[in-house]
Specification:
The structure is a single chain. The chain has 17 helices and 20 strands. A six-stranded mixed sheet has the order 6-7-8-3-9-10, sandwiched between helices. Helix 13 packs across helix 14 and helix 14 runs parallel beside helix 15. It is globular, with a radius of gyration of 25 Å. By secondary structure, it is an alpha/beta fold.
């Protein structure tokens, strides 16, 4: 057996009030893709941040190529050849691709304060050629798609001659085609002897790319298994310590016939083209399509976050003017963005403040002052009703897991008495156990008579959760399917078809 690249044993790490890691272990071989899985809060990222020098361990040992090492900083990790690519990409949009890759290590010109741009771009181009990447070193990073930015991060990591590459949720924002390209790069690196740690919630893709899987739970090590010998269900059981029963949701056979929202001939430039649909009481209406199909743009236009050029929006059959999110909230519409941390939450504020944020006027006294006894009572009601896992209402939202944060966003809109909820990628970046909780929550809301539009890039999720499915391509609705007739093949047919199909 080849000498281990990395061997971590007895690793423990605590933060104020939180024991994040307890006697954890992990190992990585040369030329291996080792998947690291677990629910949100299991300690995966924390363990890898210890390896990458971002956190100092409280106990335990780290061996690198058989030698015990002290990794006191990210620079110390890079000097060893250990690089990490975070889930949130760490690039500077105003700089070029080459400048991002070699930031702080730029070749100098004749004068020491001048950069040698020609050499800089040549070095980046040489790096891209070794990875077979089609990137322009002179392009500004802000002009690149997310998948291309991901490749820039990989190139940047490898520019340090990395022999260990840690990738945290690298496929979370990528399309299937882009994931295939990423996996091509990973396989190429594996052939070169690079050891790769792949952290992901998408368990199916681990079967495609990983050699071994290590499972963590509640800050502790559970098991390491050969990927080829383990079933997805067995990995899930180790992750959550219980069986997740992925049954068909218990939805009413037919939602109420009452139309609560109707969109007629909505247009905005080339991103929304003549979109019309209805949403019924108690219905979960799925919206599917490839990245860039216009799903999020429609949702943001209906919510008033983005303008629309023409078209009508009707609530309970009456035309309404929705030009701002405040207008939408006043008409009972809530929007849960795919980027909940940026658009859905005030991360530095506590749970109570986040829950009442969209409905503060409800809690004002006669003189306009906020009645904090009322906000506390409302927040407590939502935390109890949604089973939000938080030590207290005073806990800062940024310290909660992804699934719990998503529940806080839902609580915010329920506290605002919204009857129409638009969920944009509701389970992105959420572990399998929390996904099941979100699915149950959506079902419960539909049973209560709330109406839901659910945008998702995961076809099994769309098929499992929707009464009806609208499929979009290039800004148009190109197909509509009932739950009974929908299949992945039919959805993909409509998702790649530019013109709408008119039912006979």
């Amino acid at each position: 057996m080849a000498e281990l690249l990395v061997e971590m044993t007895g690793i423990s790490k605590s933060f104020p009030g939180v024991h994040a890691l307890d006697d954890c272990r992990f190992e990585l071989r040369p030329g291996e893709v080792h998947a690291l899985v677990g629910e949100n809060g299991a300690g995966k990222s924390t363990l890898m941040k210890v390896l990458a020098g971002i956190y100092r361990r409280d106990a335990g040992t780290i061996r690198f190529k058989g030698r015990e090492v002290e990794i006191a900083s990210p620079r110390a990790a890079q000097d060893l050849g250990i690089s990490i690519i975070h889930q949130e990409l760490n690039l500077m949009g105003h700089l070029t691709v080459a400048q991002n890759i070699f930031i702080g290590r730029e070749p100098r010109g004749a004068a020491p304060f001048l950069l040698d741009e020609k050499t800089l771009n040549a070095k980046a181009r040489e790096l891209f050629e070794t990875l077979h990447l089609k990137l322009d070193p002179r392009a500004r990073v802000s002009s690149l798609a997310v998948a291309q930015q991901q490749m820039v991060e990989i190139a940047k990591a490898l520019s340090f001659s990395s022999v260990v590459l840690i990738m945290d949720e690298p496929t979370a924002a990528l399309t299937d085609t882009e994931i295939d390209e990423l996996f091509r790069i990973i396989r190429q690196l594996r052939e070169r002897g690079t050891g790769i740690v792949h952290i992901s919630h998408r368990l199916q893709e681990l079967k495609q790319i990983s050699d071994r899987v290590t499972v963590m739970r509640d800050g502790g090590y559970i098991d390491t298994v050969q990927t080829a010998e383990a079933s997805i269900q067995s990995i899930i059981s180790k992750m959550v310590g219980r069986t997740i029963f992925e049954a068909t949701p218990e939805l009413p056979e037919h939602p109420n016939s009452e139309v609560v929202l109707e969109v007629r001939n909505l247009n905005h430039g080339r991103v929304i083209r003549d979109v019309s649909f209805q949403l019924h009481r108690g219905e979960i209406l799925g919206m599917s399509g490839l990245i860039g199909a216009g799903r999020t743009e429609v949702a943001r236009a209906v919510f008033g976050a983005d303008p629309h050029d023409s078209g009508e929006i009707l609530i309970h059959g009456k035309p309404v003017a929705i030009r701002t999110p405040a207008n939408a909230v006043a008409h009972g519409i809530g929007y849960l963005s795919e980027d909940r941390r940026r658009y859905g939450l005030a991360l530095i504020m506590d749970v109570e403040a986040n829950v009442v944020l969209a409905s503060l006027r409800k809690f004002a006294g006669r003189l306009g002052q906020i009645r904090f006894d009322r906000t506390k009572a409302a927040a407590q009601e939502q935390v109890k009703g949604l089973a939000i896992k938080t030590p207290s209402l005073a806990q800062r939202v940024r310290n909660l897991s992804g699934g719990t944060q998503q529940k806080v966003v839902v609580a915010k809109w329920l506290a605002a008495d919204t009857e129409i909820l638009i969920f944009d990628e509701p389970t992105r970046g959420i572990d399998v156990g929390a996904k099941s909780e979100i699915y149950r929550l959506l079902n419960d809301l539909a049973q209560q008579g709330r109406s839901i539009i659910m945008i998702s890039s995961e076809l099994p999720e769309i098929l499992r959760m929707s009464h009806r499915i609208l499929v979009m391509c290039e800004g148009r609705i190109t197909g509509e399917l009932s739950a009974a007739e929908a299949t992945q093949e039919k959805i993909m047919t409509f998702a790649t078809q530019r013109e709408a199909v008119v039912a006979a």
